[in-house]
Each structure stands twice: as C-alpha cells, then as structure tokens.
C-alpha cells in the first residue's frame, strides 16, 4: 500500500513541478536618452526633497513667517517649480556654509525665489 501512495505522490509532485513555470526574463536595449532621462528624473526628485527638507528647518520657517509667507505655502510652490528652478535652488543650498548658517545674501536669494514663485502663481 505504501508503494502505491508513494507512486501517487511522486506523480503528483512531478505534475506540479512541470505545471509551474519560471517567469521569463525579457531584455531590451536602453538608449542613452532613456538612461539620461531616468537619471534626470531621479535627480530632480532628489533636489525637490532637498529643498523641502531645507524648508522644514526651524530657522527657515521662522524667517518665512517673519516675511509673511507660510511654510506650507512655500512647500506647495516647490512642487510647481520647474526642474531647472529646483536644481538651481538645491545647488544654492549645497553651497551654504559648512556650519549651516545662512548669510544674509543666501537667505535673501532663497526667499526672493520663493516669493517670486508665490506671486507668479
């Protein structure tokens, strides 16, 4: 009796192994333009996140409020900025002093960009 059960289980196991097929891998050519576009999209997203993180800082929020701009409004405006504007602003943030302090010039430039975008939109 155990031989017939083993034979039945072996047949069922063999049938299930043959029925299950591994997914097929598909490869295609990726052009330079596609790769560059994907990298630019990732960079733009990283730059937007950098600007949002910058706007989350307490001293930036305080300065925005002192100028009459709500921090939430400024964050919303970051989403409506073009990729070039966000990249420029993110590069500007990268050039800030190592101590994390903004010079008056840096703060004025950043706030002017935010205010100009707020007025335009």
Characterization of this structure:
InterPro entries: PA2779-like. Pfam families: DUF6627. This is Conserved hypothetical membrane protein. Keywords: Membrane, Signal, Transmembrane, Transmembrane helix. The N and C termini lie far apart (82 Å). It is built from six helices and no strands. It has one domain. It is mainly α and 121 residues long. Helices cover 75% and strands 0% of the residues.
Helix content: over 70%
Classification by helices and strands: mainly alpha
User: How many structural domains in the coordinates?
Assistant: 1
Mean pLDDT: 83
Assembly type of the chains comes to single chain
The tally of helices reads 6
Largest sheet: none
Order of helices and strands: HHHHHH
Overall shape: it is elongated
Residue share in β-strands: under 5%
**Number of beta-strand segments:** 0
Radius of gyration, in angstroms, nearest whole number? 28 Å
Q: What are the low-pLDDT stretches, counting only 5+ consecutive residues below 50?
A: none
Distance between the termini: 82 Å
């Amino acid at each position: 009796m155990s031989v017939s059960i083993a034979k039945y289980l072996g047949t069922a196991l063999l049938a299930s192994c043959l029925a299950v097929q591994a997914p097929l891998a598909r490869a295609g050519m990726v052009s330079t333009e596609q790769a560059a576009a994907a990298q630019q999209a990732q960079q733009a997203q990283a730059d937007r996140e950098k600007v949002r993180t910058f706007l989350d800082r307490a001293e930036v929020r305080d300065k925005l409020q002192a100028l009459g701009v709500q921090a939430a409004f400024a964050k919303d405006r970051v989403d409506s900025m073009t990729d070039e504007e966000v990249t420029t602003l993110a590069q500007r943030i990268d050039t800030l002093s190592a101590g994390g302090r903004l010079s008056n010039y840096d703060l004025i430039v950043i706030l002017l960009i935010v205010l100009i975008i707020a007025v335009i939109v």
